[in-house]
Amino acid sequence: MGLTFTKLFSRLFAKKEMRILMVGLDAAGKTTILYKLKLGEIVTTIPTIGFNVETVEYKNISFTVWDVGGQDKIRPLWRHYFQNTQGLIFVVDSNDRERVVEARDELHRMLNEDELRDAVLLVFANKQDLPNAMNAAEITDKLGLHSLRQRHWYIQSTCATSGEGLYEGLDWLSNNIANKVRQLALLLCALFFDQLFEHPYLWQLGPFDT
C-alpha cells in the first residue's frame, strides 16, 4: 500500500502536461502569440489554413498548444481538436469592434460542445497596443463572459508583439493545474487514512512510505 501511494504522489507532483487549444477569429494574433511564447520573438506569419502545434515549457508544466486557423470557412473544423482539451485560449482582436459579436457567437458555440465541458477558458484580449482597442472589461461585456456561470474563466489583456500579458495568462492556467493537484492530493490523503482507520491491522504493516 505504501508503495502504491508513493507512486500516486510521485505522479501528482511530477512535471505536468496540459493540452491547450488556441482559437479565435482570423487575424486575432493567435500564431504570433504561439511563437512569442515558444521562441520569445516575433515571427512573420501568414493566415493559418490548418494548424500549428508547439510545446511551451513553463513553471514545471509542458503546455501543448494547438493553434487552429480562424477563417470562417475552416471554423467548422475546430471541433476536430476538442477532444482531451484541458484549457481553451480564445484570442480576440480588441481593436476589431465590427466583429466582436461574431467572436462572441463562435465562443459560445464552442463552449456548448460536450467535449469542452471541463475545459477552463482563458481569453486573451489581444492588440492592446492599438489606440482604439477595447479594454478587458469591455471585451468581457461584449463576449458575455459573466453569463458563463458553470465555467472557470479568466480574461487577460495582451499585446502579442511585445509579449505583455502572455505569461500572466499562462500563470493562471498553471495555477489551475496546481489547484487540481492539491485537491487530488488531499483526496488521496483522506482516502489513505480512512483505509487505515477502517482496517487497523494495516498499521502493523508500516512504516508506510508516503
From TrEMBL:
- Which residue spans adopt a coiled-coil conformation according to this UniProt entry? none
Q: Which UniProt keywords apply?
A: ER-Golgi transport, Golgi apparatus, GTP-binding, Lipoprotein, Magnesium, Metal-binding, Myristate, Nucleotide-binding, Protein transport, Transport
Which compartments is it annotated to reside in?
Golgi apparatus
Record-linked InterPro entries: Arf1-5-like (IPR045872), P-loop_NTPase (IPR027417), Small_GTP-bd (IPR005225), Small_GTPase_ARF (IPR024156), Small_GTPase_ARF/SAR (IPR006689)
Query: Single GO molecular-function term?
Result: phospholipase activator activity
Q: Which GO terms describe its biological process?
A: protein transport; vesicle-mediated transport
Could you name the domain of life of the organism this protein comes from?
Eukaryota
Give Gene Ontology CC terms.
Answer: Golgi apparatus
Grouped into one coarse class, the protein's main location is: Golgi
- Which amino acid positions bind GTP, per UniProt? G24, L25, D26, A27, A28, G29, K30, T31, G70, N126, K127, Q128, D129
Which positions carry the signal peptide feature in this UniProt record?
none
Sites where the protein binds Mg(2+) = T31, T48
- Is the keyword Endoplasmic reticulum in the record? no
Family affiliation: Belongs to the small GTPase superfamily. Arf family.
Q: Which PANTHER family match?
A: ADP RIBOSYLATION FACTOR-RELATED
Q: This chain belongs to which protein, by name? A: ADP-ribosylation factor 2
